[in-house]
Design brief:
With about 300 residues, the chain is of the alpha/beta class. About 30% of the residues lie in helices and about 25% in strands. It has 11 helices and 12 strands. Strands 3-2-4-1-5-6-7 form a 7-stranded parallel sheet, with helices on both faces. A 5-stranded antiparallel sheet has the order 8-12-9-10-11. β6 (about 160), α7 and β7 form a beta-alpha-beta unit. The chain is globular, with a radius of gyration of 19 Å.
Length: about 300
């Protein structure tokens, strides 16, 4: 039986993974392929589930498939193999959490029996090019964040420098290119905005040789980057969210959630990344009537984000 193609998407928190993943899925389906989707979230709930309508949808929550949820990932891969065998699924797209180390996921796919069942077509690392220098700087970033970003770039076969429109000077973009090439000399690189590079991605033939073994340093980011989930936020307004994010700006890397603003009598979904906060009105919201928020960052505690 022909191996099932797999596309793995990794990238730091807020880099644009989900946006690019949606475009990849649309392109694959346009080409007549039946797509299976696997999403991994640090929290207990996937707040972006409403964006995906596909039938073959798998969620692995409350941990990382690269470490704490490896056994769960293996179970899903067995299920995907069965779906591929009976013709239900042609290709799989896997999105890791923003703190996943792709090298550890590669190792699982390279193990028996998965190496006989799946073909890792591309390991994609999508980066926020406007923030990459800051994430890799010893002056503005923690050791855990720097190490994580380097691991994601190092293990990629295809690197997306996303959000290049937010870079003001050509010299800064050139610095970003050099930083990436210093970490990964072989991967294909594409510079884009909003993840608009899927046509090029599917035409690229990359080498996916395993690059080294894991070390203790590879695992360090899981001990420091934390996800705090707050539920029952049905009376939290946009002003409250702005206040919390402003007070934790040095520690907050990523936040997202769904809230009901009582002053406006309106449900909202919000995304916070790279210091930018975006709001989206929700006309109908039925997943949970209480709302929920996930904060992800360094040195976070539940006490710091109490509403």
């Amino acid at each position: 039986m022909r191996k099932m193609p797999v596309y793995l998407i990794n990238g730091f928190l807020g880099s644009g993974k989900t946006t690019m993943m949606l475009k990849m899925i649309k392109k694959l389906q346009k080409d007549g392929l039946k797509v299976a989707i696997l999403l991994n979230e640090l929290g207990q709930t996937n707040l972006e589930r409403h964006m995906f309508k596909e039938e073959n949808f798998f969620e692995l929550l409350n941990g990382c498939i690269c470490c704490s949820l490896q056994d769960d990932l293996k179970k899903v891969m067995h299920d995907l193999s069965s779906l591929h065998k009976d013709g239900t699924v042609d290709v799989a797209v896997i999105e890791g959490t923003g703190v996943a180390n792709p090298g550890e996921i590669h190792e699982i796919l390279n193990q028996h029996p998965f190496s006989d069942l799946f073909l890792l077509k591309e390991s994609v690392c999508i980066t926020d090019a406007s923030m990459l220098q800051e994430y890799l700087s010893v002056f503005s970033s923690s050791k855990e964040v720097r190490n994580l970003q380097k691991q994601q770039i190092h293990h990629a076969s295809y690197i997306v420098l996303n959000k290049v429109d937010l870079i003001d000077h050509k010299t800064d973009l050139e610095k970003v290119r050099k930083l990436v090439r210093k970490i990964n000399t072989d991967a294909a690189i594409n510079e884009t905005t909003y993840g608009d590079c899927v046509d090029d991605l599917f035409q690229t033939q990359s080498s996916l040789a395993t690059k080294g073994k894991k070390s203790e340093e590879d695992y360090a980011h899981h001990r420091e980057i934390k996800a705090i989930k707050i539920q029952n936020v049905n009376n939290v307004g946009r002003t409250d969210v702005n206040r919390i994010l402003s007070s934790l700006i040095k520690d907050m890397i990523r936040a997202k959630g769904t809230i009901y603003d009582p002053s406006e009598e309106q449900w909202y979904h919000f995304q916070y990344a790279s210091g930018k906060l975006q709001w989206e009105k929700i006309q109908t919201y039925s997943d949970t009537r209480d709302g929920e928020i996930i904060f992800i960052g360094t040195n976070l505690s539940r006490e710091k984000v109490l509403l």
